[in-house]
Amino acid sequence: MNEPRDITRTRAAYDAVAVSYEQLLRGLMAEKPYDRGVLSIFAERVRGTGNLTVLDAGCGPGRVAGYLDSCGVSVRGIDLSPGMVEVARRSYPSINFAVGTVEALDAAPGELGGILAWYSLIHTPPQRRRDVFDGFARALIPGGFLLLAFQVGDTQRHIEHAYGHAINLDAFLMDPQRIEILLESAGFAIEARLVREADKDEHTPQAYLIARARN
After folding, report:
1. Are the CB atoms for 67 and 32 separated by under 8 Å?
2. What is the phi/psi pair of residue 184, to 5°?
């Protein structure tokens, strides 16, 4: 079965920028107090479930998985881009990284205490988001936690140049209220929401949602 064209384009784009992306974002976590705070809260909530296994779904070069690993959970990462996975493995050799997609998680039903999707759904077309959330719900234990981070908006952007490379990529800004509705319909209860204004290196407000799997 042929994969959707947008997935093929996204993989190619992130393969092209993987090394430059990691170099540019290296050390960025130290400049992002809200990121660190939300990730620390998420890790604490996961630890409270008794299942410390967290999947970083769309891990990129592994920097967020690396931070979570320092927060006392057992994290592994998947990414669509083999180039990103290679960079992540080199940067964080103690963490298990593999090629995989948010739309077909390599996780058994009820296996995970937490799932992180840190800006990894921004390339998923709106009509496929509900299926992604259904898959997240299946992979989590009852009471497990999901953390989403994304840019706030309601538009689609086409990106032709990034991180010093020519690419062909679509990205979607997302409305937090609409995402909450989708999560609730997939069996999640929203536990926390935060929208902050853009930092100096950003163009839009940023949203964080923490949700708990009901069943």
Report:
1. no
2. -65, -40
Under 8 Å between Cβ of 211 and 187? no
**How do the residues of the chain divide into helix, strand and coil, expressed in percent and rounded to 5?**
40, 35, 30
**Structural domains in the chain (count):** 1
Range of the domain at 69: 5-165+179-213
Token pair in block for residue 143: 């009471």
| Confidence class for position 14, pLDDT limits 50, 70, 90 | confident
Helix (H) or strand (E) holding 19: helix 5-25
From its phi and psi, is residue 193 left (phi > 0), alpha (psi between -120 and 50) or beta? beta
- Give pLDDT tens digits for 102-111: 999 989 999 9
The distance from CA 141 to its chain's CA centroid, rounded to whole angstroms, is 19
Per-residue pLDDT tens over the stretch 122-171: 999 999 999 999 999 999 999 999 999 999 999 888 777 767 777 778 88
Residue tagged 């992002």 (tokens): 32
Paired tokens of 182: 């989708």
Determine contact, residues 105/111, Cβ cutoff 8 Å.
no
**Residue 10, domain CATH:** 3.40.50.150
Interval 109-127 mean pLDDT? 96
Q: How many degrees, rounded to 5, is the angle at CA 97 between CA 62 and CA 137? A: 90
